[in-house]
Amino acid sequence: MVSGGLGRRGRVVFAASMMLLTVAMVFGCKENQTTTTTQGSSSPPAPGGGGAAGGPAIIIGEYGSLTGTQADFGVQTDQGIQLAASEINATGGIEREGKKMPVQIAVDDDKSLAQLAETSVKRLIDEKHVIAVLGEVASSASLAGGKVCQDKGIPMISPSSTNVDVTKGRDMVFRVCFLDSYQAAVVARFAIDGLKAKRVAVFTNKSQAYSTGFSSEFKKAFAKYGGQIVADQSYSQDDQDFRGALTAIKAANPDAILVPGYYNDAGSIVKQARDLGIKVPLLGGDGWSSSKLLTIAGPAANGCYFSDHMSIKDPKPLVQDFVANYKKKFNADPTSMSALGYDAARIMFDAIKRSKSLGGKDIRDAIAQTKDFSGVTGNITINANHDADKSAVIIAVKNGAFEYAATIPDPNKPMSAK
Amino acid sequence: MRKDGREAGLTEAVQNLLQQFINGIQTGAVYALIAIGYTMVYGVLKFINFAHGDVYMVGAYIGYFAIGGFLLHYNPALQDVAALIICMAGCAALGAFIERLAYRPLRNGLTKGDAWPWALFWALYAGLFGGPSLEAHSGLNSVGAFAVAAVIGFALLLPAFFVLFNYLGKRLQPTNSRLNALITAIGISLLIENQWQASFTATPQQYPDQGFKAVNLHAGVIQLNVNGGRIAMLVIAVLLTALLVYIVRYTRTGRAIRAVSLDPEAAALQGIPTDRIIAITFLIGASLAGAAGFLNHNLGQIYFKPDVGVQLGLKAFVAAVLGGIGSIEGAVLGALLMGLAESYVGGSSLSAFKNAIAFVILTAVLLFRPSGLMGRHVPEKV
Known about the structure:
- Chain A is of the alpha/beta class.
- Chain A has two domains: about 60-180 and about 315-385, Response regulator (Rossmann fold, 3-Layer(aba) Sandwich); about 180-310 and about 395-410, Rossmann fold (3-Layer(aba) Sandwich).
- Chain A has helices spanning about 10-30, 70-90, 115-125, 140-150, 180-195, 210-225, 245-250, 265-275, 290-295, 315-330, 335-355, 360-370, and strands at about 60-65, 95, 100, 105-110, 130-135, 155-160, 175, 200-205, 230-235, 255-260, 280-285, 305-310, 375, 380, 390-400, 400-410.
- In chain A, strands 9-8-10-11-12-15-16 form a seven-stranded mixed sheet, with helices on both faces. Chain A has a five-stranded parallel sheet with strand order 4-1-5-6-7.
- Chain A is globular and about 70 Å long.
- Chain B is mainly alpha-helical.
- Helices cover about 70% and strands about 5% of the residues of chain B.
- Chain B has a two-stranded antiparallel ribbon.
- In chain B, helix 1 packs across helix 11 and helix 4 runs antiparallel to helix 5.
- Mean pLDDT of chain B is about 90; it is low at about 1-5.
- Chains A and B meet through helix 1, strand 9, helix 7 and helix 8 of A and helix 1, helix 5, strand 2 and helix 12 of B.
């Protein structure tokens, strides 16, 4: 045959076989990006069919990190939301104008990647026609998703994004948790008064908005309270070997080390720090709040502290009921992320109930009017900045478990002796 | 400043330097094992196998599944040795299979002998897609359903590909284009990463704690901290490299590899089965990458996920280029230097550039000494 060529018949056969293979792949591929089911051991989403006096279903979108580096947080938040949805659907749904409208949660996994958060939210709004959005945990993702919600006029409640910029200048975006400016100050106050640590090293994840925001707020507050930053190192998102920076931190001889990252990095950093002979406590924020941290770090985590939204050992009946129901449904203990997901969902349902209509702006106004909402994570009032005013607790790691250590309502005042 | 108020002195500085040196050597050892694979494949084929980093990732996972699975109840030392061997064997098979499936048909043209690797590869997907429906309609569990679907797929595809490739092969000429091979390597790399992520999720995994303790070394006033697991990792890496050097220098297979890397046509004329030697090269390189994956994550206790091979593969590639790609000694030297550079940069005030230093080094090497530190610039005789 002609050198270097197939010949006309050969080309046709080749093209046909390639097309056949492609077609087989396309039809064999049943996976769809957007799932409307949940992950893990949770039950399927609330039934869409109407109840006795049923109205049409209300579809609320949720974007979260169901897989990837923050998977624990995403799954826990999702389970909190699903629990809230199943509870309200057990009563028939959200009551509006005499009708009960059942709730459906459309879930989209952004794989712990802020880049995918934007497409997740777009899919929820454009394809699933959600009237409101819940999400995300990671501040980087909330910043990306919040922009889409703001542009498209769909209200969004973030359960646990603490970076200050998430709600700044975005009147469609709300949060039901405290800010990093408050949280970092709480950790700074605990370091100075609780641990008597005047010299602290900071080790930031420069690829995460949460971490960089927390770090800079901590530095401001710590300096204000009379402390000194003796070392300032950083790492990037997929780094796994922190020994170089930790060795430099050790050489600066700090009294404590702040690691405001998520539980995966924090766990590895704590472990590697202890391996290098660093004996001082390591501190963190609510990004540490996962049992995975204990799995990764093991006994190295003992003697470390972090700030969190709540402690599940809180004896309040509302909290204990939530813990019991969550355990029954998901066969696992809830975490502060689950609790925040639960509260965010319930505030959303409450706002939709009070809202003048199901339009974005009306729901937004109803959310903004949330006052003294009795949440599992505390009393929630949405302030003028669309943030929630709440207290943080300090959790200590003792004997391989999380224990309540202190509550600091106002970090600007010295801690009272216990 | 020290706690007692004295300024940080010479002791601290030397201690810091030595500690970073130890860290750097340990990191470099892992890079060395991966870099050797890159450099050997380049030596025999003049081709960069971009899928090599993903073989490392697969090694980490194989060990994790083995230890968490059928090795669970063995004593830890035996667990580690057995898992290491399984990782090396598994990755060796994977590396050789990739070569057979994707790279050889590009080199030699598509022939009917390529039917079985392609049928095997597509049988995997037959198992993945057909398995669930088979599982639903029969009493098989997911593993059994996958296996049966895969076997059926293989049985159907083998004759189909045999006929198809026989027809196409007579009409296609081998391209031997470097660009096509490169693109194929990148494609295989993406395929492995994404399929792995789809099958096993992107959630980071961690080997169970091996119980290695941090060891405190004193040398006068200097105090250094090393971790027993990382030292074991370094020792094993050195042993494997020594084994490799022995194979390449003192065995017939090694001599054949060196011959093929020097001049493939002359080697073929001497009766060396070049295709088989190339397959063996991939086998050896991939087994070392698999060992690196297991050692770094098990003994080094670092978490991993499906894209962990990307960054490490890239850095090991830079290390191979730095040392002189094609030279095994160069790969080891380059890897150690890279590990040290990363360690010192990571511990300095420029720690944000820890990952960028690899690419700074790559740029510098390509600008000032493209053949690398130990590479020979062999002029082409026309």
